[in-house]
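Before going further, it is useful to explain how the protein records used in this thesis are read. An example of such a record is reproduced below.

***
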Amino acid sequence: MGKNLTPRNEDYSKWYNELVVQADLAENSAVRGCMVIKPYGYAIWEKMQAQLDKRFKETGHQNAYFPLFVPKSLFEAEEKNAEGFAKECAVVTHYRLKTDENNPGKLIVDPEAKLEEELVVRPTSEAIIWNTYKGWIQSYRDLPLLINQWANVVRWEMRTRLFLRTAEFLWQEGHTAHATREEALAETEQMNNIYAEFVENFMAIPVIKGAKTESERFAGAVETYCIEALMQDGKALQAGTSHFLGQNFAEAFDVKFTSKEGKQEYVWASSWGVSTRLMGALIMTHSDDKGLVLPPNLAPIQVVIVPIYRNDEQFNAISEEAKLLTEELRAVGISVKFDGRDTHKPGWKFAQYELQGVPLRIAIGPKDLEN
């Protein structure tokens, strides 16, 4: 249990950083700009993932997985997109290390092991996915192609903040191919609506839906829709985006299909994604100076039971009672933790669970048993 949090009105940014660390959600790692998502934080992300995944599947999407590396030539194929991400790419140039002869116990990059073609660590997967789709799409019968992937991406950020902006982050990215402009556009709007519905109804965060201005559009998109959420410091946070890509990627990667009329046409595309940045939105929308505040359906622990006792006899009696209560609550789908640790006092536990945003706390003492 750390020190008290810096109040929001004193230093909002500091409050946020302290909260993420003290509530045990994530921490900075030995890799510059990359975070370690801790079990408690990851459990919240998993709940979001499960809900989103369900919504994607209900709208006909399937999950697949594509490579982490994108050959540079593929990356260059869609020029606007490549330019948009060029400044923040991590690039693999060699495939082997060797022992440094002048420095025993140290390794150096083997100059003999240079890759013929550099590999970009994916900042987004359009290039590798559209190159793949070329082999999957021949005729109108192959459309629409509705694919999503849960993955990690890398964008070399220098100024990082846990969950909000890190060099590596987790996300999902949908990539769809359609026979007509109208269909692709409808898909783009549908997914932005799904994000809005999820964030508002499941995460309890109000959002504004809309289209981005030209300068703010995704590189290579014809139109970018997004959801923006208002944080407590009065700033808006982009919480999800959905892009109508027109035929840009189909043309760049030569993805054509034979239409019902027997004509060769380029397919129409969309891509859409939300990331672990939603964790930042969750924290900054609901939490207060005492710690994390979680909507009950996102809380890894929904109810915590804390025993208050003076001796073993009392503890055992309380434990029995807590066990029955736990079974009752679990039977109706509520996650419960019984904190019977004798290493911490009840007051410490109360403060810790408040910091971690557990929605409901039940204290059971000898008097409660009598009643």
